[in-house]
Amino acid sequence: MARVVVVSNRLADPRKAAAGGLAVALGDTLNATGGLWFGWSGKVVDESEGGTPGEGELHTHQAGNVTLATVDLCKEDHDSYYLGYANRVLWPMFHYRLDLADFNKQSLAGYRRVNQMFARKLMPLLKPDDLIWIHDYHLIPLAAELRSMGCGNRIGFFLHIPLPPPLMLAALPGHEWLIRALFAYDVVGFQAQADVNHFERYVHSEADAEMLGDGHYRAFNRTVLARAFPIGIDVDEFAQLTHGKEARETYETMREQYSRRRLLIGIDRLDYSKGLPQRIKAFQELLASYPENRKSATLIQIASPTRESVDAYADIRHELEHLCGQINGDYGELDWMPVRYIHRTVARKRLPGLCRAGRVALVTPLRDGMNLVAKEYIAAQDPADPGVLVLSRFAGAAEQLREALLVNPYDTEGSAQAIQRALQMPLEERQARHQKLLERIRAQDVHWWRKTFLQTLENAQP
Ligand SMILES: O=P(O)(O)OC[C@H]1O[C@H](O[C@H]2O[C@H](CO)[C@@H](O)[C@H](O)[C@H]2O)[C@H](O)[C@@H](O)[C@@H]1O
Ligand SMILES: O=c1ccn([C@@H]2O[C@H](COP(=O)(O)OP(=O)(O)O)[C@@H](O)[C@H]2O)c(=O)[nH]1
What does 335-371 look like in DSSP terms, one character per residue? Predict the structure, then answer.
Protein backbone atom coordinates (compact mmCIF):
# COMPACT_ATOMS: atom_id res chain seq x y z
CA MET A 1 0.00 0.00 0.00
CA ALA A 2 1.09 3.57 -0.71
CA ARG A 3 2.24 5.80 2.15
CA VAL A 4 -0.70 6.91 4.28
CA VAL A 5 -0.98 10.50 5.50
CA VAL A 6 -3.54 11.07 8.24
CA VAL A 7 -4.69 14.59 9.07
CA SER A 8 -6.79 15.35 12.14
CA ASN A 9 -7.23 18.22 14.54
CA ARG A 10 -5.81 16.23 17.45
CA LEU A 11 -3.23 13.51 17.24
CA ALA A 12 -1.60 11.15 19.67
CA ASP A 13 1.52 9.07 19.85
CA PRO A 14 0.19 5.76 18.43
CA ARG A 15 2.70 3.77 20.49
CA LYS A 16 1.08 4.79 23.78
CA ALA A 17 -1.84 2.63 24.91
CA ALA A 18 -3.36 5.64 26.72
CA ALA A 19 -3.92 7.19 23.29
CA GLY A 20 -6.82 4.81 22.75
CA GLY A 21 -7.87 2.31 20.10
CA LEU A 22 -8.30 4.78 17.23
CA ALA A 23 -4.77 6.20 17.51
CA VAL A 24 -3.36 2.72 17.89
CA ALA A 25 -5.36 1.43 14.89
CA LEU A 26 -4.31 4.34 12.67
CA GLY A 27 -0.81 3.87 14.05
CA ASP A 28 -0.69 0.30 12.70
CA THR A 29 -1.19 1.48 9.13
CA LEU A 30 0.97 4.56 9.54
CA ASN A 31 3.72 2.40 10.95
CA ALA A 32 3.44 -0.22 8.20
CA THR A 33 3.60 2.41 5.43
CA GLY A 34 6.15 4.72 7.11
CA GLY A 35 3.32 7.24 7.25
CA LEU A 36 2.79 10.79 8.35
CA TRP A 37 0.26 12.12 10.88
CA PHE A 38 -0.39 15.83 10.65
CA GLY A 39 -2.46 18.14 12.87
CA TRP A 40 -2.62 20.71 15.63
CA SER A 41 0.09 20.37 18.28
CA GLY A 42 -2.40 21.16 21.07
CA LYS A 43 -0.31 24.25 21.87
CA VAL A 44 -1.84 27.73 21.86
CA VAL A 45 0.68 30.55 21.44
CA ASP A 46 -0.24 33.93 22.86
CA GLU A 47 0.36 37.13 20.85
CA SER A 48 2.91 38.19 23.48
CA GLU A 49 4.86 35.01 22.64
CA GLY A 50 4.84 35.83 18.93
CA GLY A 51 1.63 34.04 17.84
CA THR A 52 0.34 35.43 14.52
CA PRO A 53 -3.03 34.58 12.88
CA GLY A 54 -2.62 32.18 9.96
CA GLU A 55 0.91 31.26 11.03
CA GLY A 56 2.14 28.46 13.25
CA GLU A 57 5.43 26.77 13.88
CA LEU A 58 5.75 23.27 12.39
CA HIS A 59 7.27 20.59 14.62
CA THR A 60 8.15 17.10 13.43
CA HIS A 61 9.25 14.10 15.39
CA GLN A 62 9.47 10.36 14.87
CA ALA A 63 7.30 7.89 16.76
CA GLY A 64 8.79 4.61 15.57
CA ASN A 65 8.21 4.48 11.83
CA VAL A 66 5.61 7.26 11.94
CA THR A 67 6.35 10.94 11.46
CA LEU A 68 4.24 13.22 13.64
CA ALA A 69 4.03 16.72 12.16
CA THR A 70 2.21 19.29 14.25
CA VAL A 71 1.48 22.99 14.01
CA ASP A 72 0.90 25.42 16.88
CA LEU A 73 -2.07 27.77 16.77
CA CYS A 74 -2.05 31.38 17.91
CA LYS A 75 -4.79 32.30 20.38
CA GLU A 76 -6.90 34.14 17.80
CA ASP A 77 -6.83 31.15 15.44
CA HIS A 78 -7.58 28.66 18.23
CA ASP A 79 -10.52 30.76 19.43
CA SER A 80 -12.04 31.31 16.00
CA TYR A 81 -11.26 27.97 14.32
CA TYR A 82 -11.57 25.42 17.17
CA LEU A 83 -13.73 27.07 19.85
CA GLY A 84 -15.55 29.27 17.33
CA TYR A 85 -16.50 27.77 13.98
CA ALA A 86 -15.82 24.11 14.79
CA ASN A 87 -17.37 23.94 18.25
CA ARG A 88 -19.80 26.87 18.36
CA VAL A 89 -21.19 26.46 14.83
CA LEU A 90 -20.54 23.08 13.19
CA TRP A 91 -20.75 20.90 16.31
CA PRO A 92 -24.17 22.21 17.47
CA MET A 93 -25.61 22.41 13.95
CA PHE A 94 -24.49 18.91 13.01
CA HIS A 95 -25.96 17.62 16.30
CA TYR A 96 -29.34 19.21 15.45
CA ARG A 97 -28.94 22.08 17.96
CA LEU A 98 -29.57 25.09 15.75
CA ASP A 99 -30.56 26.97 18.91
CA LEU A 100 -26.97 26.75 20.20
CA ALA A 101 -25.20 27.70 16.97
CA ASP A 102 -23.42 31.04 17.22
CA PHE A 103 -22.51 31.96 13.68
CA ASN A 104 -20.29 34.98 12.93
CA LYS A 105 -17.97 36.05 10.13
CA GLN A 106 -14.87 36.17 12.35
CA SER A 107 -15.04 32.52 13.33
CA LEU A 108 -15.64 31.46 9.72
CA ALA A 109 -12.63 33.55 8.67
CA GLY A 110 -10.52 31.84 11.37
CA TYR A 111 -11.71 28.40 10.23
CA ARG A 112 -10.70 29.14 6.63
CA ARG A 113 -7.41 30.71 7.72
CA VAL A 114 -6.36 27.66 9.75
CA ASN A 115 -7.39 25.24 6.99
CA GLN A 116 -5.35 27.31 4.50
CA MET A 117 -2.39 27.35 6.86
CA PHE A 118 -2.61 23.57 7.39
CA ALA A 119 -2.65 23.11 3.60
CA ARG A 120 0.41 25.35 3.19
CA LYS A 121 2.32 23.47 5.88
CA LEU A 122 1.26 20.01 4.69
CA MET A 123 1.78 20.47 0.94
CA PRO A 124 5.63 20.39 1.00
CA LEU A 125 5.55 17.20 3.12
CA LEU A 126 3.49 15.24 0.57
CA LYS A 127 4.73 12.72 -2.01
CA PRO A 128 2.86 12.19 -5.30
CA ASP A 129 1.47 8.73 -4.44
CA ASP A 130 0.45 9.41 -0.83
CA LEU A 131 -3.06 8.41 0.22
CA ILE A 132 -4.32 11.33 2.28
CA TRP A 133 -7.01 10.68 4.91
CA ILE A 134 -8.50 13.80 6.52
CA HIS A 135 -10.68 13.55 9.63
CA ASP A 136 -13.65 15.41 10.95
CA TYR A 137 -15.55 18.66 10.92
CA HIS A 138 -12.57 20.84 11.85
CA LEU A 139 -11.00 20.19 8.44
CA ILE A 140 -13.81 19.97 5.85
CA PRO A 141 -12.24 22.55 3.45
CA LEU A 142 -8.70 21.18 3.68
CA ALA A 143 -8.85 19.10 0.48
CA ALA A 144 -10.17 22.07 -1.50
CA GLU A 145 -7.26 24.15 -0.19
CA LEU A 146 -4.79 21.41 -1.13
CA ARG A 147 -6.34 21.05 -4.60
CA SER A 148 -6.02 24.80 -5.15
CA MET A 149 -2.27 24.37 -4.51
CA GLY A 150 -2.08 21.64 -7.17
CA CYS A 151 -2.45 18.51 -5.02
CA GLY A 152 -3.57 15.63 -7.28
CA ASN A 153 -3.36 12.87 -4.67
CA ARG A 154 -6.27 10.68 -3.69
CA ILE A 155 -7.86 12.34 -0.67
CA GLY A 156 -10.46 10.80 1.63
CA PHE A 157 -12.52 12.40 4.36
CA PHE A 158 -14.24 10.82 7.34
CA LEU A 159 -16.87 12.71 9.31
CA HIS A 160 -16.93 11.45 12.91
CA ILE A 161 -20.10 13.38 13.77
CA PRO A 162 -23.59 13.14 12.22
CA LEU A 163 -24.63 14.99 9.08
CA PRO A 164 -28.00 16.69 9.70
CA PRO A 165 -30.98 16.53 7.33
CA PRO A 166 -30.82 18.91 4.33
CA LEU A 167 -33.16 21.60 5.63
CA MET A 168 -31.25 21.80 8.89
CA LEU A 169 -27.95 21.99 7.02
CA ALA A 170 -29.42 24.73 4.86
CA ALA A 171 -29.80 26.87 8.00
CA LEU A 172 -26.01 27.22 8.12
CA PRO A 173 -24.93 30.45 6.42
CA GLY A 174 -22.54 29.40 3.65
CA HIS A 175 -23.68 25.76 3.65
CA GLU A 176 -23.22 25.63 -0.14
CA TRP A 177 -19.51 26.44 0.24
CA LEU A 178 -19.04 23.82 2.94
CA ILE A 179 -20.72 20.99 1.03
CA ARG A 180 -19.05 22.00 -2.22
CA ALA A 181 -15.75 21.55 -0.34
CA LEU A 182 -16.65 17.88 0.18
CA PHE A 183 -16.51 17.39 -3.59
CA ALA A 184 -12.76 18.08 -3.50
CA TYR A 185 -12.40 14.62 -1.90
CA ASP A 186 -12.42 11.31 -3.75
CA VAL A 187 -14.11 9.40 -0.93
CA VAL A 188 -16.32 10.81 1.83
CA GLY A 189 -17.09 8.48 4.73
CA PHE A 190 -19.92 8.85 7.19
CA GLN A 191 -20.64 6.95 10.41
CA ALA A 192 -24.14 5.75 9.54
CA GLN A 193 -26.47 5.14 6.61
CA ALA A 194 -28.72 7.91 7.98
CA ASP A 195 -25.89 10.40 7.37
CA VAL A 196 -25.36 9.13 3.81
CA ASN A 197 -29.10 9.53 3.18
CA HIS A 198 -28.93 13.14 4.41
CA PHE A 199 -25.94 13.80 2.14
CA GLU A 200 -27.73 12.30 -0.84
CA ARG A 201 -30.89 14.31 -0.24
CA TYR A 202 -28.89 17.51 0.27
CA VAL A 203 -26.77 17.20 -2.89
CA HIS A 204 -29.83 16.22 -4.89
CA SER A 205 -31.98 19.14 -3.77
CA GLU A 206 -29.42 21.90 -3.13
CA ALA A 207 -26.56 21.10 -5.53
CA ASP A 208 -28.46 19.44 -8.36
CA ALA A 209 -26.01 16.52 -8.17
CA GLU A 210 -26.16 13.60 -10.57
CA MET A 211 -26.60 10.22 -8.87
CA LEU A 212 -24.23 7.91 -10.70
CA GLY A 213 -25.10 4.85 -8.60
CA ASP A 214 -23.17 2.76 -6.11
CA GLY A 215 -22.53 5.76 -3.89
CA HIS A 216 -21.10 8.02 -6.61
CA TYR A 217 -22.33 11.61 -6.89
CA ARG A 218 -21.34 14.20 -9.47
CA ALA A 219 -21.55 17.94 -8.89
CA PHE A 220 -19.29 21.01 -9.27
CA ASN A 221 -17.47 19.18 -12.05
CA ARG A 222 -16.19 16.46 -9.73
CA THR A 223 -17.28 12.97 -8.71
CA VAL A 224 -17.23 11.80 -5.12
CA LEU A 225 -17.93 8.41 -3.57
CA ALA A 226 -19.96 8.75 -0.34
CA ARG A 227 -20.57 5.74 1.87
CA ALA A 228 -21.08 4.67 5.50
CA PHE A 229 -18.01 3.25 7.25
CA PRO A 230 -19.16 2.81 10.88
CA ILE A 231 -16.15 3.19 13.13
CA GLY A 232 -15.44 0.35 15.55
CA ILE A 233 -13.15 -0.35 18.46
CA ASP A 234 -10.24 -2.72 18.91
CA VAL A 235 -12.32 -5.39 20.66
CA ASP A 236 -9.41 -7.58 21.68
CA GLU A 237 -7.36 -4.67 22.97
CA PHE A 238 -10.26 -3.46 25.12
CA ALA A 239 -11.08 -6.96 26.36
CA GLN A 240 -7.36 -7.39 27.19
CA LEU A 241 -7.38 -4.14 29.16
CA THR A 242 -10.15 -5.69 31.30
CA HIS A 243 -7.54 -8.09 32.67
CA GLY A 244 -4.96 -5.37 33.36
CA LYS A 245 -4.02 -4.38 36.92
CA GLU A 246 -5.93 -1.06 37.03
CA ALA A 247 -9.08 -2.48 35.44
CA ARG A 248 -9.10 -5.46 37.83
CA GLU A 249 -8.63 -3.18 40.83
CA THR A 250 -11.51 -0.98 39.68
CA TYR A 251 -13.70 -4.01 39.01
CA GLU A 252 -13.02 -5.55 42.41
CA THR A 253 -13.62 -2.28 44.29
CA MET A 254 -16.90 -1.79 42.46
CA ARG A 255 -18.07 -5.36 43.01
CA GLU A 256 -17.25 -5.13 46.69
CA GLN A 257 -19.03 -1.80 47.18
CA TYR A 258 -22.05 -2.80 45.13
CA SER A 259 -22.35 -6.48 46.05
CA ARG A 260 -25.82 -5.92 47.50
CA ARG A 261 -26.76 -3.15 45.09
CA ARG A 262 -27.19 -2.77 41.39
CA LEU A 263 -24.70 -0.62 39.56
CA LEU A 264 -25.58 1.42 36.49
CA ILE A 265 -22.89 3.33 34.65
CA GLY A 266 -22.63 6.27 32.27
CA ILE A 267 -19.33 7.39 30.70
CA ASP A 268 -19.38 10.53 28.57
CA ARG A 269 -17.72 13.83 27.85
CA LEU A 270 -19.85 16.51 29.48
CA ASP A 271 -21.37 17.49 26.15
CA TYR A 272 -24.95 18.67 25.57
CA SER A 273 -25.23 16.10 22.77
CA LYS A 274 -24.88 13.23 25.27
CA GLY A 275 -28.34 13.66 26.85
CA LEU A 276 -27.11 13.69 30.45
CA PRO A 277 -29.94 15.75 32.02
CA GLN A 278 -32.49 13.55 30.26
CA ARG A 279 -30.67 10.47 31.62
CA ILE A 280 -30.79 11.71 35.21
CA LYS A 281 -34.50 12.46 34.79
CA ALA A 282 -35.10 8.93 33.48
CA PHE A 283 -33.22 7.52 36.47
CA GLN A 284 -35.33 9.68 38.80
CA GLU A 285 -38.44 8.33 37.08
CA LEU A 286 -37.15 4.79 37.65
CA LEU A 287 -36.88 5.46 41.40
CA ALA A 288 -40.31 7.08 41.45
CA SER A 289 -42.15 4.41 39.43
CA TYR A 290 -40.29 1.29 40.57
CA PRO A 291 -39.59 1.92 44.27
CA GLU A 292 -37.89 -1.47 44.71
CA ASN A 293 -34.82 0.21 43.17
CA ARG A 294 -34.53 2.71 46.03
CA LYS A 295 -31.58 2.00 48.32
CA SER A 296 -30.37 -0.37 45.64
CA ALA A 297 -29.77 1.04 42.14
CA THR A 298 -26.81 3.42 41.91
CA LEU A 299 -25.75 5.33 38.83
CA ILE A 300 -22.07 6.21 38.52
CA GLN A 301 -21.98 8.98 35.94
CA ILE A 302 -18.58 10.03 34.63
CA ALA A 303 -18.86 13.35 32.85
CA SER A 304 -15.38 14.27 31.68
CA PRO A 305 -14.63 17.98 31.19
CA THR A 306 -14.55 19.18 27.59
CA ARG A 307 -14.50 22.52 25.66
CA GLU A 308 -15.12 24.38 28.91
CA SER A 309 -14.65 27.87 27.52
CA VAL A 310 -17.69 27.45 25.25
CA ASP A 311 -20.77 28.82 27.10
CA ALA A 312 -23.09 25.95 26.19
CA TYR A 313 -20.73 23.56 28.03
CA ALA A 314 -20.75 25.66 31.20
CA ASP A 315 -24.58 25.75 31.00
CA ILE A 316 -24.95 21.98 30.63
CA ARG A 317 -22.61 21.47 33.60
CA HIS A 318 -24.80 23.67 35.81
CA GLU A 319 -27.95 21.92 34.67
CA LEU A 320 -26.50 18.47 35.28
CA GLU A 321 -25.08 19.33 38.69
CA HIS A 322 -28.41 20.84 39.73
CA LEU A 323 -30.26 17.65 38.70
CA CYS A 324 -27.74 15.36 40.45
CA GLY A 325 -28.04 17.43 43.63
CA GLN A 326 -31.82 17.29 43.39
CA ILE A 327 -32.12 13.52 42.93
CA ASN A 328 -29.59 12.83 45.71
CA GLY A 329 -31.39 15.28 48.01
CA ASP A 330 -34.83 13.82 47.25
CA TYR A 331 -33.96 10.12 47.36
CA GLY A 332 -30.60 9.77 49.14
CA GLU A 333 -30.32 7.95 52.47
CA LEU A 334 -27.59 7.93 55.12
CA ASP A 335 -26.16 4.78 53.55
CA TRP A 336 -27.10 5.23 49.87
CA MET A 337 -26.92 7.95 47.23
CA PRO A 338 -28.67 7.33 43.89
CA VAL A 339 -26.13 9.18 41.71
CA ARG A 340 -22.37 9.38 41.98
CA TYR A 341 -21.37 12.15 39.63
CA ILE A 342 -17.70 12.45 38.68
CA HIS A 343 -16.59 15.51 36.73
CA ARG A 344 -13.17 14.18 35.76
CA THR A 345 -11.63 12.12 32.99
CA VAL A 346 -11.16 8.54 34.12
CA ALA A 347 -8.00 6.84 32.85
CA ARG A 348 -8.67 4.58 29.89
CA LYS A 349 -6.99 1.68 31.72
CA ARG A 350 -9.65 1.80 34.47
CA LEU A 351 -12.71 2.03 32.23
CA PRO A 352 -12.94 -1.67 31.28
CA GLY A 353 -13.16 -2.58 34.99
CA LEU A 354 -15.94 -0.08 35.54
CA CYS A 355 -17.75 -1.31 32.41
CA ARG A 356 -17.53 -4.95 33.52
CA ALA A 357 -18.86 -4.14 36.99
CA GLY A 358 -21.85 -2.20 35.60
CA ARG A 359 -25.03 -4.30 35.47
CA VAL A 360 -26.49 -1.75 33.05
CA ALA A 361 -24.83 0.90 30.86
CA LEU A 362 -26.78 4.02 29.96
CA VAL A 363 -25.62 5.36 26.59
CA THR A 364 -28.39 7.79 25.76
CA PRO A 365 -27.17 10.69 23.59
CA LEU A 366 -29.69 13.01 21.94
CA ARG A 367 -27.53 12.71 18.82
CA ASP A 368 -24.11 11.12 18.37
CA GLY A 369 -21.94 10.26 15.39
CA MET A 370 -21.20 6.77 16.66
CA ASN A 371 -20.48 6.46 20.42
CA LEU A 372 -17.56 4.19 21.15
CA VAL A 373 -18.47 3.77 24.82
CA ALA A 374 -21.44 1.61 23.75
CA LYS A 375 -19.04 -0.76 21.96
CA GLU A 376 -16.47 -0.67 24.77
CA TYR A 377 -19.14 -1.69 27.27
CA ILE A 378 -20.01 -4.77 25.20
CA ALA A 379 -16.33 -5.71 24.78
CA ALA A 380 -15.70 -5.53 28.55
CA GLN A 381 -18.53 -7.87 29.62
CA ASP A 382 -18.17 -11.36 31.02
CA PRO A 383 -20.03 -13.45 28.39
CA ALA A 384 -21.22 -15.84 31.11
CA ASP A 385 -22.89 -13.04 33.09
CA PRO A 386 -23.10 -9.96 30.87
CA GLY A 387 -24.67 -6.61 31.62
CA VAL A 388 -27.29 -4.87 29.49
CA LEU A 389 -26.76 -1.92 27.17
CA VAL A 390 -29.50 0.73 27.13
CA LEU A 391 -28.79 2.70 23.95
CA SER A 392 -30.31 5.79 22.40
CA ARG A 393 -31.80 5.21 18.99
CA PHE A 394 -30.16 8.53 18.02
CA ALA A 395 -26.58 7.28 18.44
CA GLY A 396 -24.91 6.18 15.19
CA ALA A 397 -24.14 2.91 17.00
CA ALA A 398 -27.87 2.09 17.11
CA GLU A 399 -27.83 1.22 13.38
CA GLN A 400 -25.57 -1.73 14.23
CA LEU A 401 -26.37 -2.61 17.85
CA ARG A 402 -29.97 -3.73 17.36
CA GLU A 403 -29.89 -6.15 20.32
CA ALA A 404 -29.33 -3.36 22.83
CA LEU A 405 -32.45 -1.97 24.52
CA LEU A 406 -33.07 0.98 22.22
CA VAL A 407 -34.67 4.06 23.77
CA ASN A 408 -35.81 7.55 22.86
CA PRO A 409 -33.95 9.70 25.42
CA TYR A 410 -36.60 12.44 25.18
CA ASP A 411 -39.18 9.94 26.49
CA THR A 412 -38.51 9.90 30.23
CA GLU A 413 -41.07 7.23 31.11
CA GLY A 414 -40.12 4.99 28.19
CA SER A 415 -36.45 5.25 29.17
CA ALA A 416 -37.26 4.43 32.82
CA GLN A 417 -39.20 1.36 31.65
CA ALA A 418 -36.24 0.22 29.55
CA ILE A 419 -33.87 0.66 32.50
CA GLN A 420 -36.21 -1.40 34.68
CA ARG A 421 -36.36 -4.08 31.98
CA ALA A 422 -32.55 -4.08 31.80
CA LEU A 423 -32.27 -4.47 35.59
CA GLN A 424 -34.76 -7.34 35.56
CA MET A 425 -33.50 -9.13 32.44
CA PRO A 426 -33.01 -12.89 32.93
CA LEU A 427 -29.55 -14.35 32.44
CA GLU A 428 -30.44 -16.26 29.25
CA GLU A 429 -31.73 -13.17 27.49
CA ARG A 430 -28.69 -11.16 28.61
CA GLN A 431 -26.37 -13.82 27.24
CA ALA A 432 -28.18 -14.09 23.92
CA ARG A 433 -28.23 -10.34 23.37
CA HIS A 434 -24.60 -9.95 24.40
CA GLN A 435 -23.41 -12.73 22.12
CA LYS A 436 -25.07 -11.10 19.11
CA LEU A 437 -23.74 -7.63 20.04
CA LEU A 438 -20.23 -9.00 20.47
CA GLU A 439 -20.41 -10.61 17.00
CA ARG A 440 -21.44 -7.27 15.55
CA ILE A 441 -18.64 -5.23 17.13
CA ARG A 442 -16.14 -7.90 16.11
CA ALA A 443 -17.35 -8.01 12.49
CA GLN A 444 -16.91 -4.25 12.08
CA ASP A 445 -14.07 -3.41 14.43
CA VAL A 446 -11.63 -0.54 14.09
CA HIS A 447 -9.29 -2.56 11.88
CA TRP A 448 -12.17 -3.38 9.51
CA TRP A 449 -13.04 0.35 9.43
CA ARG A 450 -9.49 1.48 8.65
CA LYS A 451 -8.87 -1.23 6.01
CA THR A 452 -12.22 -0.77 4.29
CA PHE A 453 -11.86 2.99 4.09
CA LEU A 454 -8.28 2.93 2.86
CA GLN A 455 -8.98 0.19 0.31
CA THR A 456 -11.92 2.18 -1.02
CA LEU A 457 -9.70 5.26 -1.27
CA GLU A 458 -6.89 3.35 -2.94
CA ASN A 459 -9.31 1.93 -5.52
CA ALA A 460 -10.91 5.31 -6.21
CA GLN A 461 -10.08 6.92 -9.56
CA PRO A 462 -7.94 9.96 -8.78
O1 LIG B 1 -11.14 16.92 20.50
P2 LIG B 1 -12.25 17.35 21.44
O3 LIG B 1 -12.87 18.66 21.05
O4 LIG B 1 -11.79 17.31 22.87
O5 LIG B 1 -13.43 16.26 21.36
C6 LIG B 1 -13.22 14.86 21.41
C7 LIG B 1 -13.66 14.16 20.13
O8 LIG B 1 -15.08 14.25 20.07
C9 LIG B 1 -15.74 13.85 18.86
O10 LIG B 1 -15.86 12.42 18.76
C11 LIG B 1 -16.57 11.80 17.69
O12 LIG B 1 -15.82 10.72 17.21
C13 LIG B 1 -16.06 9.44 17.82
C14 LIG B 1 -15.19 8.43 17.11
O15 LIG B 1 -15.52 8.36 15.74
C16 LIG B 1 -17.54 9.09 17.73
O17 LIG B 1 -17.79 7.81 18.33
C18 LIG B 1 -18.36 10.16 18.43
O19 LIG B 1 -19.75 9.89 18.27
C20 LIG B 1 -18.05 11.55 17.88
O21 LIG B 1 -18.67 12.51 18.73
C22 LIG B 1 -15.07 14.50 17.66
O23 LIG B 1 -15.71 14.12 16.47
C24 LIG B 1 -13.58 14.25 17.63
O25 LIG B 1 -12.99 14.94 16.53
C26 LIG B 1 -13.02 14.84 18.92
O27 LIG B 1 -11.60 14.66 18.96
O1 LIG C 1 -13.38 9.71 31.44
C2 LIG C 1 -13.35 9.24 30.29
C3 LIG C 1 -14.43 9.36 29.38
C4 LIG C 1 -14.32 8.81 28.11
N5 LIG C 1 -13.18 8.17 27.74
C6 LIG C 1 -13.05 7.58 26.37
O7 LIG C 1 -13.36 8.56 25.40
C8 LIG C 1 -13.95 7.96 24.26
C9 LIG C 1 -15.26 8.66 23.95
O10 LIG C 1 -15.66 8.31 22.65
P11 LIG C 1 -17.17 8.35 22.18
O12 LIG C 1 -17.19 7.89 20.79
O13 LIG C 1 -18.03 7.57 23.11
O14 LIG C 1 -17.63 9.88 22.29
P15 LIG C 1 -16.89 11.27 21.97
O16 LIG C 1 -16.40 11.77 23.30
O17 LIG C 1 -15.77 10.98 21.01
O18 LIG C 1 -17.97 12.15 21.42
C19 LIG C 1 -14.18 6.48 24.60
O20 LIG C 1 -13.15 5.72 24.00
C21 LIG C 1 -14.06 6.46 26.12
O22 LIG C 1 -13.58 5.23 26.65
C23 LIG C 1 -12.11 8.05 28.61
O24 LIG C 1 -11.08 7.44 28.28
N25 LIG C 1 -12.23 8.57 29.87
Answer: TB-SEEEE-SPPPTTTHHHHHHH-SEEEE--SSBS--
